[in-house]
Amino acid sequence: MSLTDLTIAQARDGLRAKEFSAVDLTMAHLHAIEALNPRLNAFITVSHAQAVDRARIADAALAAGEQRALTGIPLAIKDLFCTEGVRTTAGSKILGPFVPPYESTVTANLLRDGAVFLGKANLDEFAMGSSNMTSAYGPVENPWKRKQDGTAVLVPGGSSGGSAAAVAARLAMGATGTDTGGSIRQPASFCGLVGVKPTYGRCSRWGVVAFASSLDHPGPFARTVRDSAILLGSMAGHDPKDSTSANVAVPDFEAACARGVKGLRIGVPKEYRSDGMPAEIDALWQQGLDWLRQAGAEIVDVSLPHTKHGLATYYIVAPAEASSNLARYDGVRFGARDGGEDLRDLYERTRAEGFGPEVRRRILIGTYVLSAGYYDAYYLKAQKIRALILKDFTDAFAGVDALLTPTAPSAAFAQGENMDDPIKMYLNDLFTVPANLAGVPAASVPVGLDANGLPLGLQVIGKRFDEETVFAVSAALEQAAGFSALPAIRAGG
Amino acid sequence: MSLDHATIRRIASLARIRVEEHEVDNLCQELNGILGWIEQLNEVDVSGVEPLTGAANMAMAMRDDVVTDGFYPEKILTNAPERIGDFFAVPKVVE
């Protein structure tokens, strides 16, 4: 077995047993990146020298008998997390020259636990997109191919498309992502990975380039549920520098994976069953429910009446917050600068030149819905519907322990598809957005393939701060599904 | 509520994004498409509902009002597109 095929849990055991060194493990991944990244474009920046340095430090620690949760484990970091001394672009031209003089809390936590960062993963510009097509650094290729049409270049999903492609193609053992409306779970589903959006407040947002602050959730990608639990355990924790970070203890997520689902009540929200849903996704959903039933869970019908309004609500709240957050890119303190006849000209040209079309669209929508005369009709109304969506979840969770739904309404699509109308692209997040609006934890687990041989995921949604049940249900699905298919493009493949 | 060209120009000005004349028509169509789709929310009855500002009704954490960080102008200025001494530099502003 090649080093790049190991899970994080296996690599941890191998490092402890001195079967290979942290430098061996990191070099294997750097070679894989060298071979495949020119094609996949999963990384915007590869931090070769820093990675080797960190791996040497990991080997020294291992030699001294000091192994932490992620000592020597090579990871990809979404290029939305500020990394000290390593360029952080947010997928935007406007941050092209930006080298943060500080480290985000989540990545600092990973470094504390011994992780090795291979580089910065590609993403939709400012995490706005569902296909990675809006990145100023070019699109990412999904390592999976359609069985019947090997020439079609598929998208990895988005916005964390580079993170997902890197982990799927074995260029990294795990990755960080952020999920504002589905940006971890949808690419996880498209690339056959486990992706976890924890509870709002579980992972600090400090040092993560802000998109929509009340909806942004950092979280992990991995190839197994257990690996994702190991990563989240390291990323999570209270941070006084983020006023919305929750001061609650971080449980042993890895242990929760082995709990099983016996006696759990799993809700099936009837509003997620839409007429347009492809039959194979519906069939897989039923299969997932059967697996959980066979593992001892009780399946219960529930209702989330405001589900269908989640997406439109999101497309008021998220652009509103984005228009405010992105006001900071003015060409004065950091980032790119253009123009300069006078100060106003400098602002307007810097922002016209620096932002791509989707980001500009959302800033303008956000500015409009917050502007005098329209605030009540749009923004305030959206906040009220958001309250109703949260109440939907609170009511449903009074009777069940977790919910099971499909993650995305389709498998991965080809580059260029769904690009003619912004709303078509937005519909990708139909099933994932409600959990962001309510702040509840949710994971996507790969459970099967469609007729084209492309991966499909199911989504497990849990109660606030009950990621443990999400991991328990996800692990049970993983075990029953026995998902072992591999992408066409991968290291050693 | 449909946006006209003048509103597009006003929003772009508020957002400090330069929009060229030839882009206005296309932007107008795109934004009206999105706002038209959002109109579906009109069918939701929100009377008596309190707005939710965050992901949950969480209480803001309080902290002591003291300086906890800072005093490294070099680090802060390291990404400045233009600086003069310990200051960010911008085109001359005459009020």
Short account of what is shown:
Chain A has 16 helices and eleven strands.
Structure report:
The complex is a heterodimer of chains A (493) and B (95). By secondary structure, chain A is of the alpha/beta class. Chain A has 2 domains: 3-264 and 402-481, Alpha-Beta Complex (Amidase signature (AS) enzymes), CATH 3.90.1300.10; 308-383, no CATH class. Chain A has 16 helices and 11 strands. In chain A, strands 1-3-2-4-6-5-10-11-9-7-8 form an 11-stranded mixed sheet, sandwiched between helices. In chain A, helix 9 (279-294) links the parallel strand 7 (265-269) and strand 8 (298-302). With 95 residues, chain B is mainly α. Chain B has a domain at 5-42. Helix content of chain B is 35%, strand content 4%. Chain B has helices spanning 5-14, 21-38, 73-77, and strands at 83-84, 87-88. In chain B, strands 1-2 form a two-stranded antiparallel ribbon. The mean pLDDT of chain B is 91. At the A-B interface, helix 10, helix 11, helix 12, helix 13 and helix 15 of A face helix 1 and helix 2 of B.
Overview features:
heterodimer, A: 493 residues, alpha/beta, Amidase signature (AS) enzymes, 2 domains, 11-stranded mixed beta sheet, globular, B: 95 residues, 2 strands, flat
